[in-house]
Amino acid sequence: MSSPDRSVPDGCPGALTTHLAADGPLARVRLPGGLVLPQQMHVLARAAEELGDGTVELTSRGNVQLRAVSDPVDLASRLADAGLLPSATHERVRNILASPLSGRVGGLIDVRALVGELDEELCARRDLAELPGRTLFALDDGRGDMCGLEPDFGAYAQPDGSYALLLAGRDSGVRVDRDSVVPTLLNCAAAFVELRGAHWRLAEVDNGVVRIVDLLRLSAGPALPLPAPVEVPPIGWLDQTDGLVALGAGLANGVLEARLAEFLAAIDRPVIVTPWRSVIVCDLDEGPAEQVVRVLAPMGLIFDAESPWIRVSACTGSPGCAKSLADVRSDLAAAVDARMTPRDERQHWSGCERRCGRPKGEVTDVIATGIGYQVS
To answer: Quick one: CA torsion of 47, 51, 53, 58, rounded to 10 degrees?
Structure first.
């Protein structure tokens, strides 16, 4: 096996290793499974208000980030105290997606316990601290919502109780039982550490999937086609199987204002940050759920699945990104207000050709050129 090339630094931001953006240090906080407990949401809100630019940004990996951080050391201390920074060595590799409604609405199997097990075991393995910060794990409860996000290492629940092993965003043909999910995913990740050279994602490694399957002596059968990427996240009133209610809500540009985050914390219920830059407030009784909608809809939570904001997204743009040719988010907001965005297709607005944050699947690109936007 080739020796990994460590000469190229991993520029993926974390909570300890911030990225110096045009508007100041940017810190990214990993949220395995997207879960944020009420006290943790309170800490994020206060940190955004007191140490950042007053907002919490949702990312396409179900994480959050704070911009213009004035004191990264203080931020790290607050996050650690809140249980949001359990490992200094592994904090950037804890990118673990999971079906956001698992165990509450739909799905074949509840994968929530697997999220905790995977996170704990990932942090316990010293060799996996060498994973790139772009590595993505995913646990799909059988509904197929995580498959389209092209995880490097994933498990997709099957009707017979087994899990399909996903590698580089596709079905490897390998099937494992529940108890083998976590060790198999981590062993595959360890093999990637040794094979990757200068590559950041498994899909970039020549014949990477076959090499890992062979290296670990896994038995692979026929591979199945995977579901298409999800176009619209869970939005609105969602009846849980236990009789309670979950509320799915979008956010303009995926940005959560600190004051709104404080209100979410005050609901005193778990919040799930989804990879579609939306949130789900879980485990509500019907009366409080109705009150949440009445109070928080005017503050910016979008409970209408037909809102144009549900099908559009944007990169950071100016002034936060030095490479951007336009204030993309402001321009997108103006287009939404003027009803200039289509309701039957997804659009992603980008400040340059890099198209950062672009969602998976069929997406129309609107790219800044310096003298306007080009649609492709």
So the answer is: -40
pLDDT at 8: 56
Residue 327: how many other CB atoms lie within 10 Å? 17
**Residue 173: how many other CB atoms lie within 10 Å:** 17
Across 142-184, the runs of DSSP E, i.e. the strands, are 153-157, 163-167, 170-176
Region 12-26 average pLDDT: 93
H or E segment and range at residue 138:
strand 137-140
Is residue 16 within 8 A of residue 138, CB to CB? The reply is: no
Kindly report, residue by residue over 183-214, the tens digit of the pLDDT.
999 999 999 999 999 999 999 999 999 999 99
Both tokens assigned to 78: 């607050």
Beta-sheet pairing, 64-66 with 24-29: antiparallel
Separation between Cα atoms, residue 139 and residue 244, nearest integer Å: 24
Q: How many CB atoms lie within 10 A of CB 142?
A: 18
Write out 31-80 in H/E/C secondary structure. CHHHEECHHHHHHHHHHHHHHCCCEEEECCCCCEEECCCCCHHHHHHHHH
Mark 26-62 as b/e (b = at least 16 C-beta within 10 Å): bbbbbbbbbbbbeebbbbbbbbbbebbbbbbbbbbbb
Kindly report the pTM of this predicted structure.
0.95
pLDDT tens track for 299-309: 999 999 999 99
CA-nearest of 118, 144, 140 to 131 is 118
